[in-house]
Peptidase S53 domain-containing protein
Amino acid sequence: MRSSILLAAAASFAVCFAAPTADSRFELHEKRDGAPHQWSKRSRAHPDEVLPVRIGLVQSNLHKAEEYILDVSDPTSPNFGKHWSAEKVANVFAPAKKTQEGVAEWLEKSGIHGSRHSYSTGRNWIQFNATVAETERLLNTEYHYYEHDISGGYRIACDEYHLPQSVREHVDFAMPTIQLEGMRPIPNLLPKIGAQRTPQYGLTGTENCGNLVTIDCLRALYHFGQGNTSAAGNEMGIGEWADFLYLPDLPLFFKNWTTQPIPADTTPDFISIDGGQTANFTYDNSTGAGVESALDFQTSYSIIYPQKLRLYQVGDGVNIDSVGTFNIFLDALDASYCTYLGGDQPYVDPAYPDPNEGGYTGPLQCGGAPKSNVFSFSYNQIEAALPVSYQTRQCHEWMKLGLQGVSVLFASGDSGVANRYNAGYENSCLTSPDVGPYVDINGTRFSPSFPTNCPWITAVGATTIKGGVNATVSNGEEAVADPDPDDPKNDYYSGGGFSNVFALPSYQSAAVTNYLTKYNPHYPSHIYNNSGNSRAYPDVSAIGLNIPTVYLGTTYGVGGTSASTPIWGSIVTLLNEARIAAGKGPIGFLNPTFYAHPEVFNDITEGSNPGCGQPGFQAQPGWDPVTGMGTPNYPALEKLFVSLP
């Protein structure tokens, strides 16, 4: 509905607009450096169109973010495991009073009276409605209608905007301004469905691990036993956007593919966020939509039962802008982050109530959803398709969850050093940095993912058992490689690389420097960020090919970092169970301990992750941007984490 209104507006107003005059008091705050991918600029926005303006205030103490998170997560810190309360997090990072007052005073002087604007719950956002004409004067910019080349949808945006010098130090970014990309989170890959198999009964051995990596194969490979505890408050969380869990498949999976008896009526706790439902999805075996959720929950239940799972179903699946974005998930956990009481961006994140026919008519959920100790996400977006300010602000929110004892794991992607711009599109790379970089199907520069590029999450790559269909677990692992000879856009390689946005965190500095020094990939700077000073990923890996998954009554071998991520999330849940049994708290942010203790991993030294017309990176001894630190050695992990405070 919103798109049709904007289309009518763009077509109807044939009037002349005077450009805002240059003002020496203003300085450039944000700018889009080139033409946006798949968006075309149309006419000037009508001056009377009303915009929901949101200004993100600079938060206090973010320059200490790394110091704070390492204080509670570095295994050598005396404060390891002493996680913060949500109240402490909100208070420490709340914008300074001078920031709040300075921006409010500027708005007043600019004609936006105090009665028109309000603050978010955490007072880190100030919001008001203003016409295009008012906003152009306020930000010394010009707004246009942009049309999406594929969907035909329209948005209002500018190419750049300015702020007074005295105000810039208090503002992270304003919106809507330059934001266009990132219409929806991208499933890393609709999980790859291998050859169809008839469900087998009572499979308990490890004889067929080269064909199908059952739970018994995983236990033999990583040396973890059956779950036997379910500590209160340690339920594992899995977020779902594009797919809905088809519950009748669960009892079939439990019957046929788990050696530990799991009752047929076992289902996850359902957490609905902004209209998330269990049964509003049409399952279509030809597309495989719905496999993602089946894979996540069947795999995790096999590992952690009798501990429970939580299904966070995000978004109503109707909203034109998204099947849900990570921000509306964060809104539901943290009332201080919410939009229009918080962190979302109009024209990037979906608005609720949903104006589309059949959409969720309730308000955007703002707080109230329970926090889990572990979250597993099998979705990502493309770093180059989102404003740096947007990524930075959201990355800080993942950091705040880590401060509260939450482990956040994201799939690293299934396109090697490339990426998928959207579900069903070809793998995309980037243009050279001197003109962007921007997403380009024909690009040659490597394309990192978001939020796997965020230093405060754990990015998970994928491996496979060496030796093909005749493999046994004693063969060991290598980086996953599953090329599609009929359709190269479906080639599957473990996502990995180096961010163009986030700096190298101290916890991985030694490991990344070792890789770049000893095993220099020798690509020039126009191919990837070879500075040695950027966040690198993945952090860890696990099996990500031929995982048994029951979908609409039939068993498939499913792959993707969508498979390896819930495996790791489940293993971390078992580690938390062990710590709780020892009278200790959850681990929280994982990476500092992981990088400090390479001995708790199976080092993967074979394989690569090609893309963008290049061989990609090569797996090597120690950390590498294909498989990270390696795959789990559970006994060593448990011994380590139980020994920590």
